[in-house]
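Entry 14. Structure prediction run on the chain below.
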Amino acid sequence: MNDIIVAISTSLGKGAISIIRLSGEGCIQLVNNHFKGKNLTKVDSHTINYGYIIDNSKIIDQVLISVMKAPKTYTREDVVEINCHGGIAATNKILELMILNGARLAEPGEFTKRAFLNGRIDLVEAEAVMDLINSKTEKARIQSVNQLEGRLTNIIRKFRQELLELLANIEVNIDYPEYEDIEVVTIDNIKDKVKEMNTSLNNIIKESENRKIIKDGINVAIVGRPNVGKSSILNKLLGENKAIVTDIAGTTRDIVEGSITLNGIELNFIDTAGIRNTEDVVEKYGVEKSIEEINKADLVIFVLNNNEELTNDDIELINKLKNKKYITVINKKDLEQKLDISKYELNNVIYTDTISMDGIESLKDKIIELFNLEEIEQNDVDIFTSTRQITLAKECLPILKDVEEGVINNVPVDMVSIDIKRIWTLLGEILGENYSEELIDQLFSQFCLGK
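Output returned:
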C-alpha cells in the first residue's frame, strides 16, 4: 500500500469525459510532473484545476484535474482524478504516461480495498459499494444506499458493545466471587441481552432472505416441448422479438435470455430448447442445458399446448417440477382443445393464446403473487445483503441459544463467556474487524477496475 495505483474509472469508449484516478503517496507530484498549469503540489485540497497533460512538452489533452489530499479522500490517501476528453486514444495515452512514470495499474476493486484497509469503510459498506454499482432496479439502489449509510453497521457494533459489557461483568464475577449479588445481576443481564439479540438477528436474517430477490432478481426458466409457444411467450413478456418463432419444432436450440422489471424487481427470463427425445446432436445438447436451467431457476414457466394431448415428454417434465416453484401456461387456447390435465395436479394454471397472447398480464400477476412482490416496499429495512453476511449471522444463532440454555442450567459464567466471545468474533467478521487475506482478495476482485 506504499505505491501509487492508477486506473480508468469510467467506461472506455466514446463519451464527453474520461476519468483516470490515482491514489497513494506521491500521486500529486507524479501528475504535476506532466501537467501544464498551476503547481498541483501547492493548490488547496478538493479543488479542480484547468490545464494540459503533457509528455516532454508535447500536449496530450486538455484536462481538469481534481486534487484531494489525505485523509479526507475515498482511500484516505492522496487522490488525483484526471478528467480528460472521452475517447480511447487520449485516455489510454494518459494512463500509459502515468504507468511509465511510477504508477501501477490498480487491481479490480483496489481503491475500495484501500478504503477498507485504511479504516474509512467497513466490509459491509464495501459490499454495499459493489451492490450499488451493480444495481439494476430502483429498489436495489435504495437497498444499497441504506447499507452505505452504515445503519446495519451500527446495529452490529451495538451488539458487539453489549457483548463486551457482558464479558466485563463476567470478569468482575471471576475476580470477586464473594459478591453473590453481582453474579445474579450478571446472569439476568446475559438472559435479557442474549434473548433480545437472538430475536433481532433472527428477524434481520429472515427479512434478508425474503428481500434477497431485490439484489439478485428472479431467474425464470421457460420450459416445455418444442413448438408449444415458449419463444412467443418470451417475446411478449419482453415486448420485443428476442427469440426466433417458427412452426418448425426445435427452432430454439440454445438458451435465449432477456430481462424486465416487474414491481421494481428484475426478472431474468430464459427461453430453453424444447425438451424431447432427439437424435440430433446439437438439439440434444440444448435439451440437456434446458434441464440444467430448470434446476437453477427460482421459477419455472411450464408451457403446454392446448391443441395436443399430453406426451411422455410432458409427463416427465411434470415429475421434474414437483419440488419446484412453477406456473403452468396452457398456450394456444384459441385452438381446439385436445389437452387433458385432469389426472395431474398442476400448479398455478394460466391460459394464453397464439394470436393476441391474451393471458400475459395474468402471468405477470401470478409471478407477483408467488413472490409477494407487492409486499416488498422501498422502506428502510436493515438487512444483510450478501451470502457471507447471512452465513456468519446464522452461525451466531445456535451459540446464542447455547448461552441462553447455559445460564438457565447454571453453567459457570466463565464457561458461558467462551461462547459470548465467539459470537463477538463472528459479528466482527461481518464488519471485517478480523479477516483473512484470501477473503479480502476474493471479495474485492469482484469489483470493476477503477473502483
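The longest helix spans residues 180-210.
Filed with the rest of this week's runs.
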